Design the sequence.
């Protein structure tokens, strides 16, 4: 059995969720850092992690980790790598992206050129040729340089793992699928519950909630660039997909309700739910927050939402009005719970109630907070 080293980045604040998902996928010797998980495992683990991890941005196969304070350090550590263990003679290995944070080497283009040159020398030495056609399977190369410690890895995912395949169209400023999945995990969504998103947009929170409740691997229906890699037997992909499908709770009870002031967004939510294969669990309709009403069911619900931010969509006065409308129409909560992610540090004041808890999360580069409101908190209204 081949044992590989992996790296998996995630949104800051979701490391604990990803650690659990990596362990469930079979990863071992897990190391948690800010916004990134390192672990070990077999090709089967690579496959399961790509298909089933809801908050990972991608899964990388680590080629090398070393200290890099100069371009010579980069070149010397990469030019002798045993790439023949992974790459065929005609393999393509483009250096597609890199990051440098708090390091002496800051020029990404120069680092890309150095990495490419060193890996090309390694391939030429292994295959005893000066001509590398790069016409075969593609092994995208990425690197991450942090405090002069460099990690170089193959990107086994290809397109980012937030691209599940169901959201070809999106509303304005949609929440990323991986961030939505992380919030849903924090909210401890389970089968049998009722979930509501009063700002449903393109339906991401609702769809990811169904995935979580029914144990549907979020990327079960998409393809990955590593499916064409020679060192991973092709049959493993179909075997692992079938194995993961057996865990889906097909008959589970669950209800997800979406509302939006824009009728087109409500329609888009239903369209995306159909593409995701979860249309039977999701309802959506046009309804403004000022017209919000809790469902008549005696069962408590969880409201999870990503309302408009002034930084992303509307003017500050508009968002303040929306937040005040939320406070009026979403309270009293009684036995219900409300989760709101926003970048507005004054949200609690506009909403009119102090949150029971809040935690820092990042929506892209935008620092946000996820607020939890319950009926047990004293109202300031």
Sequence:
């Amino acid at each position: 059995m081949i044992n590989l080293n992996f790296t998996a980045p995630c949104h800051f604040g979701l490391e604990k969720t990803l650690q659990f998902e990596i362990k469930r996928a079979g990863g071992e010797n897990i190391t948690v850092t800010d916004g990134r998980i390192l672990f070990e495992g077999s090709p089967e683990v690579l496959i399961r992690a790509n298909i089933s991890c809801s908050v990972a941005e991608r899964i990388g196969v680590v080629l090398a980790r070393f200290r890099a304070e100069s371009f010579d350090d980069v070149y010397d550590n990469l030019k002798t790598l045993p790439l023949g263990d992974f790459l065929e003679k005609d393999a393509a290995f483009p250096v597609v992206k890199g990051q440098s944070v708090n390091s002496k080497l800051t020029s990404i283009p120069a680092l890309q050129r150095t990495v490419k040159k060193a890996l090309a020398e390694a391939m030429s030495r292994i295959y005893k040729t000066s001509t590398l056609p790069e016409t075969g399977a593609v092994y995208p190369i990425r690197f991450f340089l942090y405090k002069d410690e460099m990690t170089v890895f193959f990107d086994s995912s290809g397109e980012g793992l937030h691209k599940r395949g169901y959201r070809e169209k999106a509303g304005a400023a949609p929440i990323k699928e991986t961030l939505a999945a992380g919030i849903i995990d924090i909210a401890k969504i389970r089968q049998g519950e009722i979930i509501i998103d009063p700002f449903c947009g393109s339906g991401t929170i609702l769809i990811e909630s169904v995935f979580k409740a029914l144990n549907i691997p979020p990327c079960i229906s998409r393809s990955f660039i590593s499916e064409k890699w020679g060192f991973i037997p092709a049959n493993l992909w179909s075997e692992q997909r079938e194995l993961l499908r057996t865990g889906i709770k097909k008959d589970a009870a669950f209800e997800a309700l979406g509302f939006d002031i824009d009728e087109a967004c409500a329609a888009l939510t239903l369209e995306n739910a159909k593409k995701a294969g979860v249309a039977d669990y999701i309802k959506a309709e046009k309804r403004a927050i000022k017209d919000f009403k809790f469902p008549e069911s005696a069962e408590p619900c969880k409201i999870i939402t990503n309302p408009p931010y002034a930084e992303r969509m509307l003017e500050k006065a508009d968002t303040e009005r929306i937040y005040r409308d939320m406070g009026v129409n979403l309270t009293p909560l009684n036995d219900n719970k409300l989760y709101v992610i926003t970048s507005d540090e004054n949200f609690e004041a506009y909403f009119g109630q102090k949150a029971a808890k809040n935690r820092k999360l990042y929506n892209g580069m935008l620092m946000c907070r996820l607020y939890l409101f319950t009926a047990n908190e004293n109202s300031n209204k």
In short: The first helix runs from residue 15 to 24. The first strand starts at residue 4 and ends at 9. The chain has a mean pLDDT of 94.
